[in-house]
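wait is this the right file?? whatever heres the structure
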């Protein structure tokens, strides 16, 4: 045996030495007695490395390593082994052996354990099983193995060593005090509980008689135990441990603690004093800091914190603050203590550094909204136009010169008395004057005489006659009114009969007759008063619709033909078809173009319209012209393409949808000056069709040549056909062919040109002729099957056979001679089915004189994936898919020059590049393996599985040399061995792999065992115990590899349960797992003890606490977690060794899967003592709550006494405890403690209340103040019962008033001005060439005449911010350049059409409506009232109204309108669009004057 690789002997270690652990890390055994070294070191917190290896203390070839304050010897591992501090002692392997009695050879790592009786194994850890010889008398006795012996568990009535003697059994329960009765050969024997003795356990043992308590402790006897009360200075179960008063580390500030009898002494570092060295010596007592500085005491020194203005170590230097020249703008600096003062006198500035310009504008000296510009010792006022003076205090009187003509009244813009109260005054508009003109005059100075007829007020073609301040309208027939706006309703007399509907028109009407009832003739005639019998005995054929009509008293009808028919009776078919390629040639005459068309290159257009159906993807429909000048309509790749080509232009339009679906499609193609346009109607297009257009961008439009007289239908001559994209004639049906708007009848076409009348079509693909193994392609006159692999033949009814390679572990292969050169672009594809993860699939070799054959391309399997390589020793490319699943899969490896692409399940993966590969004729291909003279190990060996439909490029590789195939499409093997036809599995059941009565079923190269109910696993080897339901009382059964366990929850109330392992544990205990639920913050969960060995798990202040004391260690290992578990919820606690491979290891507490704490730096060994005889384990000794699964060393602690599981490792009850199974708690919610509708939750011995909205508190007794948290950021909060409401300050929004709306989102900054957002406002930052609040004015301002010219008689005026144009009525824009579109607001209602007129609009109303804006319904005309009854009173009322209106308007004109002529108080307002739209238009600011 070999001992642990320790470098030096641990027992000989001295203070300050290191020893090497197994992981190469050194453990420091410094006890702190190194103060002398520190005292000799003059630095503070400095370290120094000793060079003690210079004296070569290590012997026997050991390596010396310097440490912090000593050295360590690393003993040599070769040759004779040594140990000890200096490696001067022969290595004794028994020093580290795990057994008690040991022999070893000095200087080696070999040792031999001498085992006591009953134990065996290398380390004496295996117990001898004396029961193997079956010593107990059968049939019902049970042999129980014990240490160095065995025990026969006899049935009732038998006893003795081997259960052969008839004895009295234990039925009388003779053993007292919980003693256990054991049947013996000669009667019985009582095994007493701890603390009792005697034949029947009647005597209480006095444990204090042996005086176990040490060091003067007092012993108190108990039941099966004793308690030692220790004198001060000692602890431990027997007071055997001298308390290390230094363990609590009382000495502070790095002082050294010296442990003495019942007390300790602290050896302090320099700078500290006191019993615990907790008093620092104050170096500031000497008052070394000057000038009022603050002294800070440090360790062994001090630091001065100077007052402002002083510097230096002791603050003895006065700082010169003026040295940095802080004063600005020529101010004088005066130095002071920790300060300076700037004298700003006569600088024009102020501030601490004289940096602030004195704001002369702060007093707001400028008047009338002027802008104040700051200067040095002064300011300048920028006056608005219309004001003057140093402070802009003088208002210039613009009316002083009486500018208004023709009696107009002048008003100053700056006079606020003329402004309306609600209008906001702006100084930008205050310059200048406004003239209020007399009626009939307009213009800025009232110099323009208004022409009231200029706005065309008379409607419906009425003639306007201009007059002074007015006009007169002369109406056309059918209209009346002052504006001729009243349409005389001719439908008022209800002229339409028999339910006809009357539509009024100008001076006329139209009768719309109703639909005819079934079996009745329809009504017709001008008044719907005549029965139409033109369709009686009509001759419309082929499903045409008959439409009757009446003209000049004569009845007749029209036949509306369906698609495919023509003439008056729809008797002529327009349908024809092509069943083979060909074409029809016709010639048409081109229209003679007039001189204007020739000179100006005008082309009225060429047109082709037809319906067609076909199933072929590439065909020519129409060809017109010749090679140099032509028009082509064809089907290309299923889409419809039209092209027009000439020297001047090249036009092309393509409809991308598929038109070869066998359905009828309508194509209308038009070629004219605008370009080329196609309109397609068919599936997927709406009623208007799908439009595609190519607009001509050349100056000259498309110009056809004389060749356009030649038209080819369904094809073209070869030389023309080759110029098309399809290059194939049409096969299918056509109908309704129109060329240049003329119908082409098939009966008029030349005969014997390959076409047939009508359209007949077989549905070749219904039913499926490909048997579901391929896609049926309709070729119109036939069909074709595109077979899915591995199927083939014309109808895809045949399947390529599978071939099995490696059947029953045979070596098999197929060899082929490559007959065709494929170059460096090729692919290899095949179906694969395999479970073997490695093997050669396909390999290419080239004959070589030196090596026989040279390998240059391989496809093989590796770890279940496809690998591709070129050179034998190169790193292969790996496909990313696992393929050896036992299922058939189609794979393809494609090589494009050097790039390799792997295809699987329709996905393509680029897996990398290989050196260039070229396949030449004469190369050799191998499939599935190699012949015996070649080795395939580097490619995974032979392939085992099935291959199907293997193809090299498009050539199929057949494994049957006797098949007859087309040699161009099939390669037959030149050599083949053990390739088996069909996909055949090995006989995997012949070895009878299924155990325990399982039945074997062969799957592909594998097997499946159908196991009996009691067994499971691949071979039915694993026993299933839980299926028999062994657990009682609702326990959950869990199968184990060697048995089962029953899991329960149990409720405890300080009722402990004791267990014993009985030496049955197979491994030392290194982890404890506990599931618990409690509210006890302090509890004892688990305690295990054996002699002085102790292990305790408890709760301390709701956290997990662990105590471990093993062997002769002086101190107990204690550590406590921080996570709280006493909260009434279930928690999982795990205590385990962190490093199980090490004997002394840190221990870790994990709570709910999260590491809570560990014992570092303390370590200890595993809890092996729990497995010893006499060891006791107890749970819930002082615990109230529930326990779930509890495992010690992975072995479950049962909660039921009928635990008879077969596994070796078990814990058994000591005694017969009574447990309360299940987890129960006090019904805390029965008393309904929650108030105000809250929901009570049982939280395990505690309740919780889920409050409704608006309530809070433990019992939801308090109304929540939702405003207490001040949720409203910029607003006030109002509390409600279940919420709150925020009233936001101006400029803020949002539920919590926390959103500042971006006022710049809809800003009006012009000319590229930048908007700057602010609270409830925004500011425009203007570019350098613009100014004004909205950057709307040019800067410097524009001048009339020089910069601005007003159009359309607009009047220009110079203002403060530049020239502006006052526009005449009907115009707008900066220069009055745009005529107003009065129809822009869509004033016409009920679908009326708006006609824009100058300064007005006219509505053309739909049938049934009238009025100026089409808002009057004509349905009242059907009520039978004569139009005269309405018209005469209405006319009288209108005349009276107009008279009164004119009088009233004349009196109020001076008070209601301004003088610029925008709104004239004449009769034009009755028809003007502005009057109709005054609710929509913003009134100009000038109108708000007066």
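ok assuming it is, sequence goes like this
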């Amino acid at each position: 045996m070999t001992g642990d690789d320790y470098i030096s002997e641990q027992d000989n270690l001295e203070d300050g030495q290191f020893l090497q652990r197994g992981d190469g890390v050194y453990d420091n055994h410094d006890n702190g007695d190194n103060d002398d070294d520190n005292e000799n070191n003059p630095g503070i917190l400095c370290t120094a490395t000793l060079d003690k290896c210079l004296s070569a203390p290590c012997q026997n070839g050991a390596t010396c390593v310097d440490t912090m304050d000593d050295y360590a010897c690393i003993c040599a591992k070769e040759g004779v082994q040594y140990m000890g501090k200096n490696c001067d002692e022969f290595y004794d392997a028994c020093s580290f052996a795990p057994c008690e009695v040991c022999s070893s050879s000095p200087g080696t790592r070999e040792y031999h354990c001498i085992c006591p009786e009953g134990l065996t194994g290398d380390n004496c850890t295996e117990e001898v099983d004396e029961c193997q010889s079956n010593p107990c008398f059968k049939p019902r006795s049970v042999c129980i193995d014990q240490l160095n012996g065995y025990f026969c568990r006899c049935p009732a009535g038998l006893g003795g060593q081997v259960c052969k003697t008839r004895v009295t059994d234990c039925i009388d329960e003779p053993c007292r005090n919980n003693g256990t009765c054991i049947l013996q050969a000669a009667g019985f024997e009582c095994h007493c509980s701890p603390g009792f003795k005697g034949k029947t356990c009647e005597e209480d043992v006095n444990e204090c008689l042996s005086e176990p308590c040490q060091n003067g402790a007092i012993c108190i006897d108990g039941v099966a135990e004793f308690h030692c009360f220790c004198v001060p200075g000692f602890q431990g179960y027997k007071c055997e441990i001298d308390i290390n008063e230094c363990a609590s580390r009382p000495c502070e500030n790095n002082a050294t603690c010296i442990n003495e009898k019942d007390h300790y002494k602290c050896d302090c570092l320099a700078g500290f004093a006191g019993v615990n060295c907790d008093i620092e010596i104050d170096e500031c007592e000497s008052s070394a800091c000057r000038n009022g500085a603050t002294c800070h005491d440090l360790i062994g020194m001090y630091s001065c914190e100077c007052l402002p203005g002083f510097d230096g170590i002791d603050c003895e230097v006065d700082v010169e603050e003026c040295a940095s020249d802080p004063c600005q703008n020529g101010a004088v600096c005066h130095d002071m203590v920790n300060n300076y003062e700037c004298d700003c006198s006569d600088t024009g500035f102020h501030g601490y550094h004289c940096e602030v310009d004195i704001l002369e504008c702060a007093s707001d000296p400028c008047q009338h909204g002027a802008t104040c510009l700051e200067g040095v010792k002064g300011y300048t006022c920028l006056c608005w136009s219309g004001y003057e003076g140093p402070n802009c205090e003088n208002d210039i009187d613009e009316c002083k010169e009486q500018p208004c003509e023709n009696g107009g009244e002048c008003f100053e813009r700056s006079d606020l008395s003329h402004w309306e109260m609600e209008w906001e005054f702006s100084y930008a508009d205050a310059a200048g004057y406004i003239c209020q003109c007399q009626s009939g005059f307009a213009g800025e100075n009232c110099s323009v005489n208004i022409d009231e007829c200029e706005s065309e007020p008379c409607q419906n073609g009425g003639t306007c006659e201009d007059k002074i301040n007015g006009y007169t309208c002369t109406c056309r027939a059918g209209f009346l009114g002052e504006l001729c706006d009243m349409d005389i309703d001719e439908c008022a007399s209800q002229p339409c009969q028999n339910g006809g509907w009357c539509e009024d028109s100008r001076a006329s009407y139209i009768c719309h007759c109703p639909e005819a009832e079934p079996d009745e003739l329809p009504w017709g005639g001008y008044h719907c008063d005549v029965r139409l019998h033109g369709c009686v005995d009509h001759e419309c054929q082929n499903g045409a619709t008959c439409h009757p009509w009446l003209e000049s008293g004569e009845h007749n009808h029209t036949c509306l033909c369906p698609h495919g028919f023509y003439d008056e009776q729809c008797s002529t078919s327009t349908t024809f078809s092509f069943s083979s390629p060909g074409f029809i040639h016709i010639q048409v005459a081109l229209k003679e173009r007039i001189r204007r068309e020739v000179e100006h290159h005008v082309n009225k257009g060429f047109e082709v319209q037809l319906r067609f159906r076909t199933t072929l993807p590439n065909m020519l429909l129409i060809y017109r012209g010749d090679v140099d000048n032509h028009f082509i309509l064809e089907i290309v790749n299923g889409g419809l393409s039209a092209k027009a080509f000439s020297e001047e232009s090249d036009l092309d339009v393509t409809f991308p949808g598929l038109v070869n679906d066998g359905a009828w499609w309508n194509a209308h193609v038009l070629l004219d000056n605008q370009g080329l346009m196609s309109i397609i109607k068919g599936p997927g297009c709406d009623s208007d069709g799908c439009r595609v257009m190519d607009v001509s961008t050349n100056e000259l439009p498309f110009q056809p040549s004389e060749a356009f007289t030649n038209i080819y239908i369904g094809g073209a001559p070869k030389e023309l056909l080759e110029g098309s994209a399809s290059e194939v004639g049409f096969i299918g049906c056509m109908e309704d062919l129109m060329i240049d708007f003329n119908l082409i009848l098939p009966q008029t076409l030349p005969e014997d040109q390959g076409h047939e009348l009508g359209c007949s079509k077989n549905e070749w693909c219904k039913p499926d002729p490909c048997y579901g193994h391929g896609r049926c392609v309709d070729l119109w006159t036939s069909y074709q099957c595109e077979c899915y692999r591995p199927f083939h033949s014309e109808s895809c009814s045949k399947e390529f056979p599978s071939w099995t390679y490696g059947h029953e572990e045979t070596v098999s292969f197929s060899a082929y001679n490559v007959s065709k050169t494929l170059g460096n672009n090729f692919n290899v594809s095949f179906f694969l089915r395999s479970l073997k993860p490695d093997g050669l699939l396909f390999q290419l070799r080239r004959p070589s004189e030196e090596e026989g054959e040279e390998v240059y391309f391989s496809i093989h399997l590796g770890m279940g994936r496809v690998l591709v390589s070129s050179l034998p020793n190169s790193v292969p490319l790996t496909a990313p898919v696992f393929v050896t699943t036992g299922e058939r899969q189609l794979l393809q490896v494609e090589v494009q020059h050097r790039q390799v692409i792997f295809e699987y399940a329709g996905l393509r993966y680029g897996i990398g590049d290989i050196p260039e590969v070229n396949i030449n004729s004469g190369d050799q291909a191998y499939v599935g393996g190699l012949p015996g003279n070649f080795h395939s190990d580097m490619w995974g060996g032979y392939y085992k599985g099935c291959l199907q439909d293997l193809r090299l490029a498009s050539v199929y590789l057949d494994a049957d040399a006797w098949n007859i195939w087309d040699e161009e499409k099939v390669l037959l093997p030149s050599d083949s061995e053990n390739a088996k036809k069909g996909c055949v599995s090995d006989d995997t059941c012949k070895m009878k792999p299924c155990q325990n009565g399982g039945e074997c079923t062969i799957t592909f190269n594998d097997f499946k065992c159908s196991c009996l109910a009691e067994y499971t696993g691949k071979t039915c080897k694993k026993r299933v115990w839980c299926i028999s339901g062994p657990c009682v009382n609702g326990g959950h059964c869990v199968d184990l590899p060697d048995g089962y366990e029953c899991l329960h929850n149990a409720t405890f109330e300080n009722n402990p349960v004791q267990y014993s392992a009985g030496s049955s544990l197979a491994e030392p205990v290194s982890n404890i797992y506990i599931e618990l639920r409690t509210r006890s913050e302090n509890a004892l969960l688990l305690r295990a003890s054996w002699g002085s060995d102790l292990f305790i798990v408890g709760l301390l202040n709701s956290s997990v606490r662990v105590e471990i004391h093993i062997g002769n260690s002086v101190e107990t290992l204690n550590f406590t977690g921080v996570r709280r578990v006493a909260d009434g919820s279930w928690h999982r606690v795990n205590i385990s060794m962190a490093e199980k491979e090490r004997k002394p290891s840190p221990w870790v507490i994990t709570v709910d899967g999260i590491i809570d704490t560990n014992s570092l730096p303390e370590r200890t060994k595993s809890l092996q003592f729990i497995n010893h005889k006499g060891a006791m384990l107890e749970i819930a000794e002082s615990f109230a709550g529930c326990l779930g699964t509890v495992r010690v060393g992975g072995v479950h602690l049962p909660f039921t006494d009928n635990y008879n599981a077969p596994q070796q490792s078990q814990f058994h009850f000591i005694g017969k405890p009574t447990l309360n199974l299940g987890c129960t708690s006090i019904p805390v919610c029965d008393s309904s403690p929650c108030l105000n509708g809250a929901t009570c939750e049982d939280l395990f011995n505690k309740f919780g209340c889920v409050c409704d909205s608006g309530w809070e508190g433990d019992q939801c007794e308090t109304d929540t103040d939702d405003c207490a948290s001040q949720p409203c950021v910029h607003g006030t909060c109002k509390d409600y019962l279940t919420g709150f409401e925020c009233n936001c300050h101006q400029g803020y929004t949002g539920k919590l008033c926390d959103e500042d709306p971006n006022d710049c989102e809809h800003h009006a900054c012009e000319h590229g001005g930048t908007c700057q957002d602010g609270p409830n406002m925004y500011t425009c930052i203007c570019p350098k060439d613009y100014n004004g609040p909205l950057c709307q004015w040019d800067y410097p301002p524009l001048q009339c005449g020089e910069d601005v010219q007003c159009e359309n008689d607009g009047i220009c005026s110079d203002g403060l911010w530049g020239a502006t144009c006052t526009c005449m009525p009907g115009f707008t824009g900066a220069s009055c350049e745009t005529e107003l579109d009065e129809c822009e607001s869509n004033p016409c209602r009920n679908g009326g059409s708006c006609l824009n007129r100058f300064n007005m609009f006219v509505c053309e109303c739909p049938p049934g409506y009238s009025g100026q804006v089409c808002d009057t319904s004509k349905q009242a005309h059907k009520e039978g009232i004569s139009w005269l009854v309405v018209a005469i009173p209405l006319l009288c009322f209108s005349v009276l109204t107009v008279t009164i209106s004119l009088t009233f308007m004349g009196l109020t004109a001076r008070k209601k309108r301004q003088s610029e002529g925008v709104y004239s108080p004449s009769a034009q307002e009755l028809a003007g669009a502005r009057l109709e739209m005054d609710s929509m238009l913003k009134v100009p600011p000038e109108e708000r004057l007066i």
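Confidence is low (pLDDT under 50) at residues 1-49, 593-603, 1419-1429, 1453-1490. so i think its the right one actually
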